[in-house]
Amino acid sequence: xxxxxxxxxxxxxxxxxxxxxxxxxxxxxxxxxxxxxxxxxxxxxxxxxxxxxxxxxxxxxxxxxxxxxxxxxxxxxxxxxxxxxxxxxxxxxxxxxxxxxxxxxxxxxxxxxxxxxxxxxxxxxxxxxxxxxxxxxxxxxxxxxxxxxxxxxxxxxxxxxxxxxxxxxxxxxxxxxxxxxxxxxxxxxxxxxxxxxxxxxxxxxxxxxxxxxxxxxxxxxxxxxxxxxxxxxxxxxxxxxxxxxxxxxxxxxxxxxxxxxxxxxxxxxxxxxxxxxxxxxxxxxxxxxxxxxxxxxxxxxxxxxxxxxxxxx
Amino acid sequence: xxxxxxxxxxxxxxxxxxxxxxxxxxxxxxxxxxxxxxxxxxxxxxxxxxxxxxxxxxxxxxxxxxxxxxxxxxxxxxxxxxxxxxxxxxxxxxxxxxxxxxxxxxxxxxxxxxxxxxxxxxxxxxxxxxxxxxxxxxxxxxxxxxxxxxxxxxxxxxxxxxxxxxxxxxxxxxxxxxxxxxxxxxxxxxxxxxxxxxxxxxxxxxxxxxxxxxxxxxxxxxxxxxxxxxxxxxxxxxxxxxxxxxxxxxxxxxxxxxxxxxxxxxxxxxxxxxxxxxxxxxxxxxxxxxxxxxxxxxxxxxxxxxxxxxxxx
Amino acid sequence: xxxxxxxxxxxxxxxxxxxxxxxxxxxxxxxxxxxxxxxxxxxxxxxxxxxxxxxxxxxxxxxxxxxxxxxxxxxxxxxxxxxxxxxxxxxxxxxxxxxxxxxxxxxxxxxxxxxxxxxxxxxxxxxxxxxxxxxxxxxxxxxxxxxxxxxxxxxxxxxxxxxxxxxxxxxxxxxxxxxxxxxxxxxxxxxxxxxxxxxxxxxxxxxxxxxxxxxxxxxxxxxxxxxxxxxxxxxxxxxxxxxxxxxxxxxxxxxxxxxxxxxxxxxxxxxxxxxxxxxxxxxxxxxxxxxxxxxxxxxxxxxxxxxxxxxxx
Amino acid sequence: xxxxxxxxxxxxxxxxxxxxxxxxxxxxxxxxxxxxxxxxxxxxxxxxxxxxxxxxxxxxxxxxxxxxxxxxxxxxxxxxxxxxxxxxxxxxxxxxxxxxxxxxxxxxxxxxxxxxxxxxxxxxxxxxxxxxxxxxxxxxxxxxxxxxxxxxxxxxxxxxxxxxxxxxxxxxxxxxxxxxxxxxxxxxxxxxxxxxxxxxxxxxxxxxxxxxxxxxxxxxxxxxxxxxxxxxxxxxxxxxxxxxxxxxxxxxxxxxxxxxxxxxxxxxxxxxxxxxxxxxxxxxxxxxxxxxxxxxxxxxxxxxxxxxxxxxx
Lengths: 313, 313, 313, 313
Prior knowledge:
In chain A, 23% of the residues lie in helices and 21% in strands. The first copy, chain A, is an alpha/beta fold. In chain A, the strands form four sheets. A nine-stranded mixed beta sheet of chain A has the order 1-17-15-9-11-13-14-5-16.
């Protein structure tokens, strides 16, 4: 298979350079490919409204430890109705929730500071900008005002007529273009690319698995597809899984997609979405484009945020 | 002042009954006033798009203990670039974030289970539905697919030409209607009511204060305004502060607005938004209505969620 | 085997009554069997000093999720030497540690409020004394000033000449007395009873297992041994495992040892100690009695505390 | 006052060198001054037993944010008796506790990795040994088997006949020797030095205060007293406060005592003990020496541990 052609370290370095946006919008700029998502593009997204349905693309937060959830969140009630406030009515209940922001089974968005390639962050910033006190730049508040635009779902299992892609499989640009044709859509400037491998469906049907290098791996994109995303000026990447094929086919680069998208291109990327509810609505409405809203928590010095991405039809 | 007329417990009980939606949409229904926010209303919201600007209405998450933040969040880096993954490039940094979900200075949304009045939740459900293991019903996942609609900002300090309302002040329906006229808007069926007292501006200029019963209090709504919201079929309430006047003018009811909105009406309510960035854009665009998207975390058995409410123009 | 004789609910109720210390030291008393550990007994313990060696009986805190660790602790560095304090030298590093206090693989001590039998705590106190705001009585600060006394290790695998007891095995009083003889010791008034089944050695050699009712279970004591502990006036119970045989042989009572020791007797009980280092020293010194010091954290309203129990020879 | 003589950076560097134990017990040794606490010394401690009383020297854990507690612990019930286990009787309640390990009002012990002076840890180890993944050496498990020895309380407010020392006051060796005489004790080889300034009594009577450089400061030791501790071969330091005088009298060194004790001498040091209960017992028993047991949590890669230090008479 083409997608299993090994890519050498040298070839990867060249690819990194080709898709790099370093300096494109200025030396201290932090929005990266969101610069493509202009208000013109945003207004185009709103023209997609018809039914007014909205649907979540988040996995319900999973508090059970497992092979893809080694550090499950902490979630406790801190007050129930068993005590009565001395202030009188009404009464209130409260909870506490704590979590690692990233991980392999929680829907979240990455800040650009989250990834470094060979000692450099996006736009050539040094890794020393992130200390034990958090990032000095490119934290998640870059996205504080939300990300709103047109989403295009390319559903590869639908194209292949399978339930899901198997771990280790890598999708090429040919296949992305075939999905575009099958769905009658085209990824364009300022778009959000929703990439479905069926990762979450596999998880629902077979149970969670270790999708890392010490486990079974995961399905994702061939690194060369970044050329297509770069040419098309895609703004945002929203995969189930996280876009990576594990193991990767790049020599010495375990997670080439993150390196290219985040460190080279400065792309706004989320991980571990689920499209099971969305995919049904796409079939019902027979369209694979819609408005998408991302509203990460406004957390200063955050390297990312749990996320509930919303699609609106 | 009318707004300082004391309301007796009996009068409040009658008001509670008048605005109650218990049983209106079925005995086990959990969406409450969101039933007003139909797809027709949602489409109307999208017709407001012009400039394509989006703006956050969240307070940046505040990690510093203070008079309105007695239990500040826990936020730590859990991995920085000082260690190198044995898997090779790229490298990643991670953080951990834990927080109480409610509180007096964090922008959040309440689940309907959060408030009980005299032993009953919205729709007459018993408080025993919430245990130390969390709520059995009306948790935050009721809002999992997001809340999207038309937002109308009624800016009371703008109307009064003051920087902010002082703690203890209560806004009446007369004043809400005056704000509508001044802004050329009208709160209607399925709308989101954004209510500005200038709470956050006061906080920015004077510093945080204890806005509870053992402190200086806060500005909010007169409980009788709930009759107006009920008649107008408002779907969502989004205040700076939390809508409450502290101290309240209701005998024996410390937080009458929460009791009425959440326990009686089943209204989707957020607390502690900030409208400082929004208000500027409203002036620039000279309109006080816009699309709003709320995307609470999809947290099973959550009593609420931190929130980044987004307005889109 | 005698230890597999089923005990009926009625027989258990009688046993509960026989070993009950309710009211023995007063109606609101919270020290239970620690009343046996008088200063006379404590001085006797100190006479055991010879070599001056001290040894931990705690399992190193385990941060890896697993079958007996479903909610692993949260442990993060919150400051490293990558930032420099503006105050100048010296520099400091800090960490954060959060954990559930109980569980099946962390060495901890139970407060008496931790266990209720049929709606009653030790000394007949109602379960309503523990709310979502914590216990109103019998919290871990009862043991704030430490527990110091004579420890006697009864090492059952040593007696049986096996590596460990298998899950489901229950040790009877005959066997405890045989261990006493083999070691030349006798459990007496005010003593701390260290009970070794080899649980931790099994864990070290075979790996962690689910030792609950939905797993393989664990080895422990036959409930009738409580008669012996009651007669002997034992003050403290320190097991590897937690003293329970899972599954239990008592009809309708899943954890009879906790019910008897804590709810009936008011005994200070810890769980999940490890005696691997201790057992070697006992062999070297050829004695199975020594001084023991327990110093639980002084946590108001705590239901227990992680613990590092220290034996001193 | 002598104790307010300024010490230059050069004088401090010489003092650091004089009291340094680097290399004294080997190049990779981690026990530092605990090497003085031999079993001979330990046995001597046990000869102090008379009354058999034990007493805590820990401050009850404080969950309320305040000027010396900016990041209060997280402490929640995670299960109460409002739910019934399907396994049947007995029932259990549980809590969760999370905390920063150090800080200015929680009784805790420092690991040697906690302090670096000019880029070097005790024994000349590099600060790079501590990363975001924790310390590679000199973590708190160095003290896993507990620290047991003779404690000597030098009570300076008692000597001066005052309630407490005021912030900024520094105690000299003359005064320590005067306290020894007044109490009829002498700090010697392998001893634990309990140093009372009355810090906690002041806190109880006047309320908490900011005891750091941006606040009122605290009372402590003059840095030259380290010469005396070094000559006397003291093993352990247990202060109320943390031994530091804030502001310090050393040019460019904000916390000279930590630099000297931990980085130079490798001394086992705890912070923020309270001696209010202990001091009463000392008066009653008319002796200021007793056995002390420290049992830090056995936390791999911990930079310290909350602690409940126990004195036994």
